[in-house]
Design goal:
Structural class of chain B: mainly alpha
Order of helices and strands of chain A: HHEHEHEHEHEEHEHEHHHHEHHEEH
Number of helices of chain A: 15
Strand order of the largest sheet of chain A: 1-3-2-4-6-5-10-11-9-7-8
Helix content of chain A: 25-40%
Largest sheet of chain A: 11 strands, mixed
Number of strands of chain B: 2
Distance between the termini of chain A: 26 Å
Radius of gyration of chain A: 21 Å
Number of helices of chain B: 3
Oligomer: heterodimer
Chain lengths: ~475, ~90
């Protein structure tokens, strides 16, 4: 039996029945990492010793005959934006290359309580800015389905680790599509939850009103298991919501599904469209009512996003001043330390976003850019509110195209930004969205995006599961 | 096209050192990105825009027991420190 192809649920059942131990599972995953990751580059660090110790501890609990949770003993990977106490947390940036996390993120604390096993930290675009994981300061992660292509981004390492059986599941973050787009490119399931449903405490900040932590798994059932555990109110995150996942199943035959015409406009790859249309057809065959809808302000979403995200990020990243932590360059005076530490520590895309954000917030430009973008955000939110007055869920593509070639979009920043065109409106509207595998073009997976109303992850998951099983 | 002076001004506001080459590239990239933002001028106007404050329920600022090791770990992360304090260069 190949232990690394098992889902979380199957791991749990095997552990319960004593067919294998968590140490067996962990060793199998570590062996896969040794074998495949030289080529795929999903991991920035692997904690072999720590993982085996956590596995042994999980085995103790299991052997004792006590009740144990679904995640107990199942090995996972964690995006290197999320802090695990005592381990490096680099955000794939030179500025945090040697930074050791002083405490656990709330998500990690919750997973530890369940007896989780942490295999290592995964590669990403620096500070979660990018769409391909090519912006990492350390390495370029490759798509396990085609090594000449990107895995998507920014949670590219997390997604590649699950797709290549180098982790049973992973935790990523989604600011503009960073879980859904790579999940689509690599053929796994990834959820960006409603803003506020998962704590951001202990997660390196990118753009605070857009950032959200979410799970990446092999199937929908596993996704629900992980999401239930990591979600919920956290007093350490003022934006976290009083929310508890409600265990409720919804039948496709009782659902109205909206198909927004703006998602099927010019620019959508014909083969991708075919796959998404056939997923919509499947839902219809399962009894769902398909309704054509319109989100008229969607065309402004990308521009609004690329003002709001850099504006928030430029403020958040001002903390890397060479004084409190991270890279510190010598200088003649304090200003010199700031200038050099930031100048040498940040990569090209991060600098670009800091510049755009600072520009948009600077005197004379604030109204034309930042304030305008916030107004667009309101309009987009309203579009979705109107849509969810008529439908239960929205079906759309995740990305206009399948995984692109490494280097294809790196010379022109705007062409890379366009890769986010179908995902960012969800973030602007604080909504939840999932990517579920819907088909393949050759060997390249294509995901279907299912967008739900606030805190209706259970409805999204029900629909995704019924499609997965059909 | 954004001028070199403008790029340098923004970089100064952001406390970001840029090389000569980076300034040139930034002129080009920022111009292209800002041109794209022109699209927003066509967007409908919104009456009485709401300011974006969500879940602004701040917790009570309570004095409580904390692990002293946490303070040590936080100080340890600073590049320059002395006797449990973070050292900063003179400002004046």
């Amino acid at each position: 039996m190949d232990l690394t192809s098992l889902t979380i649920k199957q791991c749990h059942e095997g552990l319960k029945a004593g067919k294998f131990t968590s140490v067996d599972l962990t060793k199998a995953y570590l062996a896969n990492i040794k074998k495949f990751d030289k080529e795929i580059n999903a991991f920035l660090s692997v904690d072999e010793k720590g993982a085996l110790a956590q596995a042994a501890a999980a085995d103790q609990i299991i052997k004792s005959g006590a009740e144990f949770g679904m995640l107990c003993g199942a090995p996972c990977s964690i995006k290197d934006l999320i802090m695990i106490e005592g381990q490096k947390c680099t955000a794939a940036s030179k500025i945090l290359e040697n930074y050791i996390a002083p405490y656990d993120a709330t998500v990690i604390k919750k997973l530890k309580k369940e007896g989780a096993v942490f295999l290592g930290k995964t590669n990403m675009d620096e500070f979660a800015m990018g769409s391909s994981t090519e912006n990492s300061a350390f390495k370029v992660t490759k798509n396990p389905h085609d090594l000449t292509r990107v895995p998507g981004g920014t949670s590219g390492g997390s997604v590649a680790s699950v797709a290549a059986n180098m982790a049973c599941y992973s935790i990523g973050t989604d600011t503009g599509g960073s879980i859904r787009q790579p999940a689509s490119f690599c053929g796994v399931v990834g959820l960006r939850p409603t803003y506020g449903s998962v704590s951001r405490y202990g997660v390196v900040a990118d753009a605070s009103s857009l950032d959200q932590v979410g799970p990446i798994t092999k199937n929908v059932e596993d996704l629900e298991i992980v999401f239930k555990i990591i979600s919920g109110k956290d007093p350490m995150d003022a934006t976290s919501a009083n929310y508890e996942f409600e265990d409720k199943k919804f039948e496709m035959k009782d659902m109205k599904i909206g198909v927004p015409k703006e998602y099927f406009a010019k620019g959508l790859d014909k083969e991708v469209e075919k796959i998404i249309r056939s997923a919509i057809k499947k839902a219809e065959e399962l009894g769902a009512k398909i309704i054509d809808i319109s989100l008229p302000n969607l065309k402004y979403a990308l521009a609004a996003y690329y003002i709001i995200q850099p504006a928030e990020a430029s403020a958040n990243l001002s903390r890397y001043d060479g004084i409190k932590y991270g890279l510190s360059e010598q200088g003649n005076n304090l200003l010199d330390v700031y200038l050099k530490s930031k100048g040498h520590g940040f990569g090209a895309e991060v600098k670009r976003r800091i510049m755009v954000g600072t520009y948009a917030l600077s005197a004379g430009y604030y109204d034309a850019y930042y304030k305008k973008a916030q107004e667009i955000r309101e309009l987009i939110k309203q579009d979705f509110t109107d849509a969810f007055g008529k439908v239960d869920l929205i079906f759309a593509p995740v990305s206009p195209f399948p995984a692109f070639k490494i280097g294809e979009n790196t010379s022109d920043p705007l062409s890379m930004y366009l890769a986010d065109i179908y995902t960012i409106s969800v973030n602007l509207a604080y909504l939840p969205g999932i990517s579920v595998p819907a088909g393949k073009i050759g060997k390249l997976p294509v995901g279907l995006q299912i967008i739900g109303n606030y805190f209706q992850e259970n409805k999204i998951l029900s629909a995704a599961e019924q499609l997965e099983q059909k | 096209m954004i001028s070199k002076e403008e790029v340098l001004h923004i970089a100064k506001l952001a406390r970001l050192e840029l090389t000569e080459k980076e300034v040139e590239k930034m002129q080009k990239d920022l111009s292209a990105i800002l041109d794209y933002f022109d699209l927003l001028k066509k967007a409908p106007k919104i009456e009485n825009p709401k300011s974006e404050i969500r879940n602004s329920n701040l917790r009570i600022d309570e004095v409580g027991e904390k692990d002293t090791k946490m303070a040590e770990r936080l100080i340890k992360a600073a590049p320059d420190k002395k006797d449990g304090y973070i050292k900063v260069k003179a400002i004046l």
